[in-house]
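worker-03 picked up job from queue 'complexes'. Input manifest follows; two sequence lines, order preserved.
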Amino acid sequence: MSQSAVANFLLQSRGESRDLDAFVVAARFSRDGRRVGFALGDGTVRLVAVGAPGDWASVTVHDGAVLDFASDPAGDGFISGGDDGKLRRVTGDGTVSDVASFGMKWVEHVATYALDKGKGLIAASAGKIVRLFDQAGQQLKELTHPSTVTGLVFDGKGKRIGASHYNGASLWFVAAKTDTPRKLEWKGSHTGIIIHPDGEAVVTAMQENALHGWKLPDGQHMRMSGYPAKTERLSFTRNGKWMASSGADAMVLWPFFGGGPMGKAPLELAGGDGIICTQVACNPKDEIVAGGFADGLVVVADIGSSRIVPVVPPEHGSISTLAWSPNGTQLAVGTETGFAAVIDFAER
Amino acid sequence: MADSNTQVPVTVLTGYLGAGKTTLLNRILTEQHGRKYAVVINEFGELGVDNDLVVDSDEEVFEMNNGCICCTVRGDLIRIVGGLMKRRDKFDGIIIETTGLANPAPVAQTFFVDDTVKAKTRLDAIVTVVDAKHLPARLADSHEAADQIAFADVIVLNKTDLVTPEELDAVEATIRSINRFAIIHRTQRAELPIAQVLDRGAFDLDRILTLHPDFLDGDDDHEHNEDVSSMSFEVEKPIDPEKFNAWIGVLLQDKGQDLLRTKGILHYANEDRRFAFQAVHMIADGDFIGPSKDGDPKTSRLVFIGRNLNRPQLRRGFESCAAD
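worker-03 finished. Artifact:
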């Protein structure tokens, strides 16, 4: 981004930031949008009240590193998986409690889904096993996969859960009486998964710097390739029109409309510097996407106009996580070297 | 380019069940050496040490979709290295224990194939523990025993108290016939200074140059058979990088299945720095390393460890890479 040298980064005028001295594994907003949790490689979670900058409370959640982190589907806090084999809950006031223990195995993936009336679902994976819990931590199911689960996601309605693994992905119905997955098969190592918001497609990232997809319900294959690096993050826009992806020297957005993505060229945003995009996050309200790069640059792009707004200058380490608040007005940013920020996009 | 100072050294520990791998691992973890290691193991419970950086893993060997039939990687290691990097400041190195029957190629290839693993770690050495008494039987009944020796940079020849001096010499000669480049340590109960095993920098190839040339070029009577053997070749003239790449590319493509490990230090024409080349089966990698010491001969050397090695063909091929 050649204009970044003179650009006005929003971090300076609208951001609140800290150096936290540990790898920022994930930033997430609580379901009510009032708090941000930064989950770190030192096993702590930093809790930040949105709009009320003060102390960032530090809570030790794991004996080891946090590996994945999600909003609590039924509370004001978060659900955290660690390399100590523990799945834990952190409430907004910093109280930590156990949800489940997976023994010696790392809890590598956590996904949550908020249902009506304070109910919700919590899913976590360790090795080949996915366990599904209700919001209170009561185990509902244990789902076994042919190899280690590398990604875990609920669909847009909380009806199905998808898990990526070697040679494909498995789709399970949350409420099924007998657990038989829909197997989506494609040879090779799949390293992450996302489901289209309307359930029209499943897309996985692959070891060979490519994406693979299956249209639903027919299972027609989709191949999206040309990435110079592995795709770490996939994100659909709210209406499912675009799927943003990392792994290239731009944010790469595939059109999921007008017959796409097959046979359509993707939209590339904020490229041109040869720096790999490491993180993307689509805004939950508007057709806007945030992108983070290996040099620490964060930008936000309007998909319709391709207009780019610089947010964080390339000075604080490779971007490791990006998250929007549920109402789409706040962006949380974290880096591998422990920089963390919350930027306010609300109209003033 | 990856910076070797910030890359985490990785030691791979192989060897048949019962050879003394776990004994060596316990020794590494209990000895007071002031360094902290993250240990990736597959057979939890055998380890008698409480260490919060022990990672329990299932060996998951994945084929790559790159059209190369022998290109397999350890998918679990790619994930684990990624996870460990989130608390990089908590350890000095990584030790990976493989199961007894494991073929070492997927582990080694993981360090060539995955960009993140390549950027964040460097393969320090492959250490193979062998049982002096049972090695001949293992070699007779499995491919893996020979492969584990072929891949080794360091061989711990253990349980020497269970054999006669004559038997021990015979076993060592057998090991040498497979891999004449590895350092061999004779031990009982895997007792040896840990520094002989960890932080060897063995995979950076420099050591190849320090081996005695006469020893390297000794007679080889294993040229056309199914046994694993090793050969080294030298070229005095500078190497033409284009010729070398063309030759080695075709060679690895054609014979990669048989070539377990290929490594070399090359002096290119008009280049002060030396080029360190290495390959596991068909997967090759290379990097410029520092120049040789003043006064040292600028001899390029290439080493092959594998099956069905054709000495005259390899020699002619390497010699044809000399710059005009």
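worker-03 released lock.
Chain B touches chain A through 25 residues (CB under 8 Å).
The longest strand of chain B covers residues 121-131.
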